[in-house]
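Researcher: Please predict.
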Amino acid sequence: MKVHRIVGVYHAEGSLLGELRYLVGKWRGTTSCALCDITHGALAEKAAFRACRGRFVVPIETLHLDEQDGALRAFTAGKTACVVALIEGRWTMLLDRTTLEQCQGSVERFSDALSRALGEVLLS
């Protein structure tokens, strides 16, 4: 099996208004995104995550809800934040919201979980 893409999908929109809504919701405790907690610090992408991006069979991409194409949007609807892979033309869930939350913002835990998930998918 060949992995064509690995995509992390945030539970937030990437527009300025979407980012502001997310920040306000996070501050109020009404929204969260476990993938954001893993990939970003207070103001920018974590250096550890930048290093992690290229460790896998294909580099990890990250997209906001409003940046997905139709097929990806249909696959991830109601399941974000998550990490998915395009394998042999089909989207496959690698890390769901619960698994990302269990990483508790740690890039190292994320990397370990993603390695395990890819191994399981590619060996099945």
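Model: The longest helix spans residues 107-123.
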